[in-house]
Give the backbone structure.
Amino acid sequence: MEAIVARGLCIRPLRLRDADAFALAVRESALTVGRWLPWCRADYSRKDARTWIAQCTVRLQMRVSCDVGIFSEDGEIFYGGIAVNQIEPAHNMGNIGYWVRPSMQRQGIATRAARTIAESAFDTLKLTRLEIIAAEENRASRAVAEKLGATFECVARNRLVIKGTPVAAAVYSLVPGDLRADPS
């Protein structure tokens, strides 16, 4: 995947040199994002980040997942992560996931990044369905899906496991043509 510069952001693959910034953002996010994503912990280390980045690089090369970073438009300041993962080529579908560090939240970054990655998934990967699955109580992630124009399909019981506990999750879908007009 080449870097995508759009909507004031740069969406690009993570590099090993991003490990320190990634680990710092994860630690910053432990109390907020960590509520929903158990890997997001206060003790997340540079080594953890380097391992994650190496795994992302391999999965990107294999075309099974596109876990990348959300950066400032110049590609230097790390804001968070976004992914098209759980790609099912036989069904032309995948999942979009996202997180933004607390110091950068409430600026529309997740929505802009999700719109950009969804467009790329439809245009480049030729997917015909994307799902956004968020814990039922995760209002911030659900709001991003709704701003994109994703269709709320259901609340699925025990759809996610968070810190060992099954929780209900809201399931949203996007298909080509669903994305609401870009307000930017």
Observations:
- The domain at 4-174 is CATH 3.40.630.30 (Aminopeptidase).
- The chain has four helices and eight strands.
- The two ends are 24 Å apart (CA to CA).
- The mean pLDDT is 94.
